[in-house]
Amino acid sequence: HLWISCLQRGYFLMCNMTFEETSGENSTERMDSVAKALEEVLSSALPQGCITVGVYEAAKSLNVDPDNVVLCLLATDEEQVEDVALQIHFTLIQAFCCENDINILRVSNMRRLAEILGGVKSGGEPMDMHCVLVTNPQLTTWKDPALSKVNLFCRDSRILDQWVPIINLPD
């Protein structure tokens, strides 16, 4: 009865507020800050061998060692949003990540993502940038302020029922 009374009096209105309304920072500034932190995470993870690129490669990695994955990125461009097969893959990966407490971000601007990660396999073939996993280094758990910032953003988004927040990587 206390919960219903509080709800009727409006004490839980914050649950219906948008992310921008609950954050102290300007929402654009916060999104830019998180996008920069994500770029830092990717740039530092790449030389450590902590990046898995590609939908199928990511699915294999998630199946083998999900506890080692610290972040999952799902990326599309405008023309790929209606690709049904890709959306099915995304749905399955998202479900697996949610089940295993892995933070997920949707990323727009695949061109920028490819720039950060090199974008080309050793044979000159373009990489599948639709799914990117960030994992812990082999011997240690990764402690990185940029990763903490991205993970905090994901957690804050989940609190507001936005389970897969979207980040635009700036050019």
TrEMBL record:
Record keywords, A-Z: Cell cycle, DNA damage, Growth arrest, Nucleus, Phosphoprotein
Any one of the GO BP annotations: regulation of cell cycle
Keyword Hydrolase assigned: no
Pfam families in UniProt: Ribosomal_L7Ae
Domain Ribosomal protein eL8/eL30/eS12/Gadd45, residue spans: 37-118
Gene Ontology cellular component terms for the protein in this record: cytoplasm; nucleus
Location of the protein in the cell: Nucleus
UniProt keyword Signal, yes or no: no
Main location class: nucleus
Family note: Belongs to the GADD45 family.
Protein name: Growth arrest and DNA damage-inducible protein GADD45 alpha
Source organism: Salmo trutta (Brown trout)
Top-level taxonomy: Eukaryota, Metazoa, Chordata, Craniata, Vertebrata
